[in-house]
Amino acid sequence: MGELEHKFEVKIDTTENKQKLPDNVKAELKETGMMDEKGKLKLKGVSPKMLKKMKQEFVQCPVLKEEIQFVQCFICPNFQSRVMGKVLCKGDPLK
Ligand code: SF4
């Protein structure tokens, strides 16, 4: 199989700081059942250990042109996969 078609390879960085998800992202996660009422994330196929790590990660999104948490990137329609510390991103415009 050939490589997935993607426009950007976005480096994943780590921070020690506590990151907060924006309210609109939280609302979206809740709507789609990926977050419970208490604000606990429930991502399919992601272990609690992985999730803990993910919460410390962020990317400089080339589409939104801002720093966003990896969790948000992970659920983005442009997200294709994560390979060796990078996100393969489709790069389509987001609403
Ligand atoms: S997948 Fe989405 S959030 Fe992640 S870098 Fe690409 S456009 Fe930005």
* Element pattern in H and E: EHHEEHEE
Bound molecules: iron/sulfur cluster
Q: Give the overall average pLDDT.
A: 94
Low-confidence stretches: none
Compute the gyration radius: what is it? 13 Å
**Alpha-beta content class:** alpha+beta
| Percent in strands | 25-35%
Which outline best applies?
Answer: globular
Strand order of the largest sheet: 3-2-1-5-4
Regarding quaternary structure, what we see is single chain
What is the overall number of helices?
3
Major sheet size, sense and barrel closure: 5 strands, antiparallel
Overall tally of structural domains: 1
N-to-C CA distance: 31 Å
Estimate percent helicity: 10-25%
Question: What's the number of extended β-strand segments?
Answer: 5
Describe the structure.
With 95 residues, the protein is of the alpha+beta class. It has one domain (8-89). Helices cover 22% and strands 26% of the residues. The chain contains three helices and five strands. A five-stranded antiparallel β-sheet has the order 3-2-1-5-4. It starts with 7 loop residues before the first strand and ends in a 6-residue tail after the last strand. The site of iron/sulfur cluster has 13 residues, from strand 2 and strand 5.
